[in-house]
Amino acid sequence: MSASSKIKSISELSDVLDSEQKNGKQVVLCHGVFDLVHPGHVLHFKAARNFGDFLIVTVTPDRYVHKGPGRPAFNERLRMEAIAALECVDYVALNEWPTAVETIHRLRPQVYVKGSDYADPASDLTGKIVDEENAIRAVGGEIRFTAEEVFSSSALINRFFHSYPPETHNYLAKFRETHSADQVIGRLKELADVRVLVVGEAILDQYCYCIPLAKSPKEFIIATKFSSEENFAGGSVAVANHVAGYCDQVTLVTCLGADDRHFDFFRSILRPNIQLRAVRTNERPTIIKRRFVEPTFLTKMFEIQYLDDTPLSGRPENELVSVLERQLLEHDLVIVADFGHGQLTDRLRGMLGSSGKFLAVNTQTNSANLGFNPITKYERAGYVCIHEGELRLALHTQFGDLYDIAARLRQKLSARGFMVTRGPHGSVLFSDNGEVHEAPALSVKVIDRVGAGDAFFAVTSPCVYKGYDADLVGLVGNCVGALAVETVCNRAPVDSTMLYKFISHLLR
C-alpha cells in the first residue's frame, strides 16, 4: 500500500475498521501531534503495532496544536505523509477534535497506546490523558504504554529548526542553564493562593467584520459589505479573566451602564472563580469600542467609541468607594487597569495608593485620552507595567536613554518592579535591587495585538507580588504576550494549560 493511500478520514477509517474488527482483528490506536517524526516515534509505533493487527495513527490538526508560536513546525499534511511512509503504520487520519476522546468513540480500538511519559497522569499538563483513558475503557478497550527510548520533538525543533533569531535562541539557551520548565511551571502554580482584586474600566470590544467594495461613485466614501460581528470582553474584564487562570480567588470591581445586555454578557464571559462587583449607573453608558475590520487580514479600518470619559462623580463614585473599602480588606494584590475613561478618579487613585495593599498598575494612552492618563497620576505602586511610548510620554521625554528614564520613574513611584514593554523588541524589567533584565519578544505570528498588553500585565502582576526573579517574570510575560497576539482580540484568555505547554516545549 502506498503512503498516500494509507491516509483516510475518520469516517472512512470507521467503515474499514468495522469490517476488520468483525473478522476478529485487533485494532491499535496512537494519537499525537508528531511535529517532526523522529526515532522515538518510530520505536513507539513499532512497539504499539505488536499489541494488535492494525495500527492506526491519528494526528492533531494544526489549529489545535498549542505548543507556542511557530508550532507546529511542520503542517498537518507533512506530518501525516511522514507517518504514513512508515511500514509499521497501517492507516493515518487527521483528527477532527482537540483530543482523541471522540476519535476513540468513533473508531472503537481495542488498544490505545501512549508513550511512557504519559504513564503518570499527574505529569500530563493538559489533564486529557485521564479523559482518553476513560474513553477507551468505555468502548471496551484498554490503554497501554510503550517503554521505548523517549526523544522530544520540541527539543529537536528548538535545537535545529528554531524560528527565532540568533539572539533569542541564545537567550533561551542561557535561560535553560538556570531554569527548567518544571521549575517555571511550579512557580506559576504557586500563584493559586494569591487573592486578587482587579479594578478598572470594563470595555466591550466589538469587531464588525466587513468586506471593502469600492469608492461610491456619488460620494467620497469607501463602501463596505457587512459580513458578521463578534463581541469580546476587554479592559478590566480581560485582565480578570487572564489572572483568574492562575489565581483561584479573583474579584472584579468596575462600573457599567444600565443596559442589562452588557452586564449579562460580561457575567457570562467571566471565569467561574471571578466575583463581579459592578456599580450600575444611568449616567453613563458601558464603554463600547466598535471596530470595523476586514476579515481576511484583520485590518482595522475605522473605530467608533461609545463612552463618557468625564471623571466619575456623585452616587457612582461613592458606591465604588464603598465597594472598594470592603474588598480591599479581603485581597492581597490589587491590579489596576486604568484606561483613562473616567472611572479611576483622583479620589479612587488616592484610596488605592494609601490602602497598604500591593498595587500593580497599568495606565494606557489611547485615542480618547490623548495622553492625559499618565502613570504619574499614581503616587505609589508596587508594580508598574507600561509601554515604552507611554513611559516617555509620562515624563515628557521623547528621546533619551530608556534605562535612565525608567529608573527615574520607578524611584518616584517606589515600585518594587517596573516593567517596560517594547512590542517586537521584547521587555525590560527593573527590580528594586537594581537588577535589570531584558527579555526578547517570543512571538512568531501576529494575528491581533489588541489585548496582548493586558494579558502580559495580568499574569506578570502576581509574579512580581510573589517576588519572583526578574528573568523568570520576563520570560513568563513574553510567553503570555506571544500567545495573546495569536488570538483575535480577547476571544479567549491565555489559560494556564496553554502557557504551561508553551513553556514546557520552549525550554526543552
CATH architecture of the largest domain: 3-Layer(aba) Sandwich
Q: How many strand units?
A: 19
Q: At the third CATH level, what is the topology name of the largest domain?
A: UDP-N-acetylmuramoyl-L-alanine:D-glutamate ligase
Strand order of the largest sheet: 11-10-7-14-15-16-17-18-19
The residue-averaged pLDDT reads 91
Biggest sheet architecture: 9 strands, mixed
Whole-number radius of gyration? Answer: 26 Å
Indicate the percent of residues in helices.
25-40%
Structural class of the helix and strand makeup?
alpha/beta
Strand content: 15-25%
Characteristic key phrases:
single chain; alpha/beta; 18 helices; 2 domains; Rossmann fold; 508 residues; 9-stranded mixed beta sheet
Describe this structure in words.
The chain has 508 residues and is of the alpha/beta class. It folds into two domains: 3-160, HUPs (Rossmann fold); 185-202 and 239-279 and 322-506, 3-Layer(aba) Sandwich (UDP-N-acetylmuramoyl-L-alanine:D-glutamate ligase). Helices cover 36% and strands 24% of the residues. The chain contains 18 helices and 19 strands. It has helices spanning 3-6, 10-22, 39-49, 76-84, 101-107, 128-138, 153-160, 166-178, 181-189, 236-243, 260-269, 314-328, 346-353, 388-394, 402-413, 452-465, 470-484, 496-506; strands at 7-8, 27-32, 54-59, 91-94, 111-114, 142-145, 195-200, 202-215, 222-235, 249-256, 274-280, 287-294, 299-306, 333-338, 358-363, 383-387, 417-421, 427-431, 436-439. Strands 11-10-7-14-15-16-17-18-19 form a nine-stranded mixed beta sheet, sandwiched between helices. Strands 1-4-3-2-5-6 form a six-stranded parallel beta sheet, sandwiched between helices. Strands 9-8-12-13 form a four-stranded mixed beta sheet. Helix 5 (101-107) packs parallel to helix 6 and helix 10 packs across helix 16 (452-465). The protein is globular, with a radius of gyration of 26 Å. 42% of the residues are buried. The model has no long low-confidence stretch (mean pLDDT 91).
